[in-house]
């Protein structure tokens, strides 16, 4: 079996190792455009040795932003700032990926450090949308139930954002189907009470996702991998389950998806999440073995031995780190040294002496 420092290839894209930066909203974009913050933030992690860098949730339309300062790709002006960043990431050995997203009923909030409360129209807020008029928090205003025409419009927004992602130079595209945002909210019976072809049965609840992937795949180059991040369980009775995730993963594979990024939760504030080291790894392992598709494991992976074990035992093909990467952009250097594999790490030449 490969180890953490071995390269990983999907289609014709090769990552220099199995360590990825998990997508992390920075709430620091200007009109959806990346800034110097993003260049330094993402660039540091490329210089630090990560094989894959998944840029933050990027809204396909303005209503799909979590906060007004989210990244977006709903307009051509948002392409250029990203080109510069991607060129830097590639020049320093990392594969840049984008995560295309729509926040659905969890949109329209203040930035976390400003309190995350729902924004009123007067505060620059907008109408939030979802599969059904069920709010995320009891007592909040219900989202507008999307009509069939509006569903198609959002799917088309995913397609145009995909075309812009190609122009921006991304090498992998991930569709955000996790954490209670629009796509996941279609999957889960907790947020989807529709009675048309987008609600009810499993086939109906996954229709929005499958159709979107079917529209996106032909616009994303054949040579480049397509991933989907799933919340693999709602951690709540009556919610979306791991078994459903495995069935969905099989169908996504048949549509040309190359990787399932296995997260969980976020769909209901009532979830009982068994948080702990590697707590989501069994989800990545189950999807990988039972759907026969490569997976990424994420969630409280912080230690080099822990990460290496996941790869060596074939529990996932990639590990993604989020908060640990914020604490330490040089985690890959330290992991390679701790595992006695420093000679395998490819670092920018300027930093080569750090691993000798
Ligand atoms: C600051 C921050 C922003 C995040 N933004 C996103 C995001 O844009 N998209 C996403 O899918 N997950 C997002 N997440 C979740 C992480 O990608 C990751 O799944 C989660 O933090 C668990 O990994 P960790 O234990 O290594 O932090 C975010 C997490 C943090 C800490």
Strand order within the widest beta sheet: 3-4-6-9-10-11-12-13
Note the overall shape. globular
Give the beta-strand count. 13
Distance between the termini: 26 Å
Average pLDDT score: 98
Strand content: 15-25%
Q: What is the CATH superfamily classification?
A: Aldolase class I
Low-confidence stretches: none
Biggest pleated sheet: 8 strands, parallel, barrel
Q: Enumerate how many helices there are, as a single number.
A: 11
SSE order in H/E notation? Answer: EEEHEEHEEEHEHHHEHEHEHEHH
What does this structure look like?
The protein is 31% helix and 15% strand. By secondary structure, the chain is α/β, with parallel strands linked by helices. It has a single domain (8-354), classed as Aldolase class I (TIM Barrel), CATH 3.20.20.70. A hairpin with a 2-residue loop joins strand 1 and strand 2. The protein is globular and about 60 Å long. The model has no long low-confidence stretch (mean pLDDT 98). Bound molecules: flavin mononucleotide. Residues 22-25, 56-57, 99, 176, 178-179, 229, 263, 298-301, 321-324 line the site of flavin mononucleotide.
Question: What is this structure, in a nutshell?
Answer:
The protein has 356 residues and is an alpha/beta fold.
Q: How would you summarize the topology of this molecule?
A:
Elements: E1 8-10, E2 13-15, E3 19-21, H1 36-47, E4 52-59, E5 71-72, H2 79-91, E6 95-101, E7 129-130, E8 144-145, H3 148-167, E9 172-177, H4 182-187, H5 202-205, H6 207-216, E10 226-231, H7 242-254, E11 259-263, H8 281-291, E12 295-298, H9 304-312, E13 318-321, H10 323-327, H11 331-338
Parallel strand pairs: 3-4, 3-13, 4-5, 4-6, 6-9, 7-8, 9-10, 10-11, 11-12, 12-13
Antiparallel strand pairs: 1-2
Helix pairs in contact: 1-2, 3-6, 7-8
Bound molecules: flavin mononucleotide (FMN).
């Amino acid at each position: 079996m490969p180890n953490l420092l071995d390269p990983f290839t999907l289609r014709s894209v090769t990552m220099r190792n199995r360590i990825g930066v998990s997508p992390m909203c920075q709430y620091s974009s200007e009109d959806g455009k990346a800034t110097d913050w993003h260049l330094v933030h993402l660039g540091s992690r490329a210089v630090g040795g990560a094989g894959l860098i998944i840029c933050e949730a990027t809204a396909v339309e303005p209503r799909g932003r979590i906060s007004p300062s989210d990244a977006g790709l709903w307009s051509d002006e948002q392409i250029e700032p990203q080109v510069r960043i991607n060129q830097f990431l590639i020049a320093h050995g990392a594969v840049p990926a984008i995560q295309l997203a729509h926040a659905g009923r969890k949109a329209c909030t203040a930035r976390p450090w400003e309190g995350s409360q729902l924004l009123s129209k007067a505060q620059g807020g907008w109408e939030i949308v979802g599969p059904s008029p069920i709010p995320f928090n009891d007592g909040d205003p219900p989202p507008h139930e999307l009509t069939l025409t509006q569903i198609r419009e959002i799917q088309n927004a995913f397609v145009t954002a995909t075309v812009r992602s190609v122009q921006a130079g991304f090498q992998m595209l991930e569709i955000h189907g996790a954490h209670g945002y629009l796509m996941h909210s279609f999957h889960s019976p907790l947020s989807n009470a529709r009675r048309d072809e987008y609600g009810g049965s499993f086939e109906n609840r996954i229709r929005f996702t499958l159709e979107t992937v079917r529209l996106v795949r032909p616009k994303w180059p054949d040579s480049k991998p397509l991933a989907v991040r799933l919340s693999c369980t709602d951690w709540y009775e009556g919610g979306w389950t791991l078994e459903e995730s495995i069935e969905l993963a099989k169908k996504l594979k048949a549509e040309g998806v190359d990787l399932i990024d296995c997260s969980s939760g976020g769909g209901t504030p009532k979830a009982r999440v068994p948080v702990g080291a590697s707590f989501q790894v069994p989800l990545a392992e189950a999807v990988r073995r039972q759907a026969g598709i490569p997976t990424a494991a994420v969630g409280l992976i912080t230690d080099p031995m822990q990460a290496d074990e996941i790869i060596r035992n074939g529990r996932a093909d990639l590990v993604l780190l989020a908060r640990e990467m914020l604490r330490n952009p040089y985690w890959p250097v330290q992991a390679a040294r701790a595992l006695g594999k420093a000679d395998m790490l490819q670092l920018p030449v300027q930093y080569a002496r750090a691993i000798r």
